[in-house]
Amino acid sequence: MQSATSAYQLDPDDLGALLPGQPAYRAGQLREWLYDHPVLDPEQMTNLPAELRESLRDRLWPFTVEIEQSADDGRTRKWLFRSPDGASIETVLMGYKRRTTLCISSQAGCAMACTFCATGQFGFERHLDAGEIVAQVAYANAALQRNPIAGSPDRVTNVVFMGMGEPLANYKHLRDSLHRMIDIIDMAARSVTVSTVGVVPGIRKLADEPWQVGLAISLHAADDELRNTLIPLNKRYPLSDLIDSARYFFDKTGRRISIEWTMMDGVNDTPEQAEKLAAIARDLRAHINVISLNPTPLTPHRRPGQLAIDEFMAELADHGANATFRETRGQDIDAACGQLRVRSATDKTKGRQ
Ligand code: SAH
Predict the structure, then answer these.
(1) Of 59, 181, 173, 9, which is closest to residue 107 (Cα–Cα)?
(2) Which residue has the higher pLDDT, 2 or 143?
(3) Rounded to the nearest whole angstrom, what is the distance from the C-alpha of residue 19 to the centroid of ligand 1?
(4) Which of these, 37, 189, 195, 328, could form a disulfide with 216 (CB 3.0-4.6 Å)?
(5) Threshold 0.85, pTM exceeds
(6) Is the CB of residue 215 less than 8 Å from the CB of residue 194?
(7) Which candidate, 256, 222, 220, places its Cα nearest to that of 239?
(8) 350 has a pLDDT exceeding 60
């Protein structure tokens, strides 16, 4: 059961509710601590009186940290957060030379059931609210203050909605979390990317918002016949509708779409798929990001070999598409795309202490 509502779950304009009997300016001070200079522990909120800091002790974050892991020499960090009702929330931080990217979750679990994705195989638990979504960003900023990544910006510069969940299936909370990131934390809209498996009405709604956020479409198959077998949602929103909505997004926002393509051995790595994919990308003037499947315990698919990857990339180039092959991070801590969630759930059923 959710006990008291945490600070991040309150509307940023209603923080006074946590501060009964306090002068009004305290709400403004707290708001700055939450969004501008987040800290892991309310004790660090030095301009608030001691008893107030104490009263915030269990009400600052909407979750506790269950597991914190790092890989790639500390440049990749993963948190498994647990909310009071037991929902798990996974977040991955990646430090690069000029950016620090946070991969966040929009739902606990996911209802989309894509055959290659660990989260999808586990099923849907619940939507995250806007506070739970934005608190992942604030928590990472607070953690970076305490423990920066050497050689990377010490604040989250980029956010990608590529953790657990389908953000456009949780539109209201997605929207409110974007508002807080862009209008309150002051992140550049262009540095926030919403990734979707193809919720067509959501893409159109997002295009109509006032922000120039990025849109990534997880395509993975370039015709309905193949896509129907990998992504159940394709039966509801077939490729032609998805492409129309992507075009609408590009026309409306002026932002180039990214097409995500997870290569699976013998499934979507054929020259025919490459040719069709290239045609879609050219038509949309989109950029293609190709990654290799990250193995998950339940998926029937396998990663392609290097030769297949090279041939596929060459085929895309021959057909005039812009494409980049990307190495993924964090595989050894189950923090790579599509791997979130299953390990902890498996651990739980085994009675991990
Ligand atoms: N639901 C959203 C965001 C979460 S998934 C979406 O589908 O875009 C983030 C990305 O990881 C998507 O491109 C997804 O297709 C990809 N992905 C899922 N499982 C994967 C796996 N096992 N290996 C590699 N990428 C995977």
Answers:
(1) 173
(2) 143
(3) 41
(4) 195
(5) yes
(6) yes
(7) 222
(8) no
